[in-house]
Amino acid sequence: MAAKLERLGVRAAAGWLLSALLLLGCLVPFTRGERASAGGIPLVQPEDRPQQQREMGSLLEQPLAAPGGGGGEEGAKGLVLQPKTLVADGPELSSFPSVSNSTILFLHVFKCAGTTLREVLTTWAKLEGLNGAIVEYCRSKTFTNVGRICLNSQNDLMDPIREKWLVAGSKLLAGHFLWDFRHYVTPPYLMVTTLRNPLELFVSSQQFMHKAETKTLDDSVAFVGQSMKSRLGWADPTDLAFIRRFLDSETANSYDPQVLYSDEEMSAMVQTAVDHLNTFYVVGVVEQYQGFIEVLKRTLDPDESHPKLWAAAVGVLDNGSPVHSGDVLSGIDPDLVREFNATALARQWQVYDVALKLWDSRCREILPPEDHEALCSVPSHR
Fold first, then answer.
1. What is the pTM of this model?
2. By the 8 A CB rule, do 178 and 77 touch?
3. Sheet holding 172-175, edge to edge
4. How far is residue 167's CA from residue 149's CA, in Å, rounded to a whole number?
5. Is pLDDT at 58 greater than 90 in this prediction?
């Protein structure tokens, strides 16, 4: 409890916390849109905040895991309190363990071609004679698929006794897990993920979650535009969105987009996500999907033993919306789009810009020079 009080700048016992805040005018994180009755000051006492948020934990700098999970200190269990400059600093391919000796972890980020890619990867594992499993959230302990690993609402194994053996016996694990899921895996392992232009990611996610309201182009333009306006009406419209996937479990589970965080806290979470991304084997981007498939082919199947798989993978894209996100954006007021992009999505762009650099570097490292322009380059599309 003392650590939580210290984080709020209060050095008092819990019993007189409320009165101290009122007397001293201390500022604490508050829920967006809520106002105290006196003076219109935005203020919510810690007791009124979600329990998970109160347990977010201190922002402590700890060493990161070494590439591939081999050697080095244990992974970060907190956040970097004073963020460094955001840089793409991924190790060269030669510093990672070999694919043949490693478990592949594909971190599926929502609306970033993950459904397609996890099917491609599980098919690759089967063709190689390896065990693979899909990791997903489950509402109950109902297991109907041997290759399925269930997570609960806190991103932990739902049935640890059973599922730890599934994890141990799998050479490929793909799904909507968090950065800390790697702790269940015995090193060495290789982490892979894909990200997407945050603006189109937002549009696509709105279409996916509100299918009935976005069946046509006109409906999509109206609905997504209103969603942008609504978000901009918040005290702080900034949202970490996909960034939380790359944070430690405690922080990711406690993050609430409707709670106002300090700039220091937000910057620390962004920095931590970037530090973790820098340890990935491959960070791909949806805007260069074809290039990403080619990189997977050359790293996972260097002898090209499965040409049909990779040829088919290039033309498959599951969970696509009936209306293209680019068309939706073209129909929304450009001033609204610019404002939304520069505020609500600002933190996501910071991380995505690093992902672009990591992708470009790894792609050019793996593919021959004659393929760089066509398969590595990503056009500017802010």
1. 0.76
2. no
3. 148-151, 132-137, 172-175, 103-107, 189-195, 282-285
4. 8
5. no
